[in-house]
Amino acid sequence: VMSQAPPPPRLSKRDRTRQALIAATLAVAEEKGFAGASLEAIAERAGMTRGAIYSNFKGRSELLMAAFTSVGLKID
What we know:
Oligomer: single chain
Largest sheet: none
């Protein structure tokens, strides 16, 4: 009998929301560039409101930094 790895821990709703917002940020930025990645466009892509962004990130700059970090980019 082969032992199986334990299932990955389930993400909290907050973590899933943050991941969805980061994914939406990257998708919008790929289409429009980071300068064109407005909170409205990101929220729409994620199927959320701007309020969801502000309840998870301090603002656009923090969201962009989280998106950069998620793909391994470092900003000084």
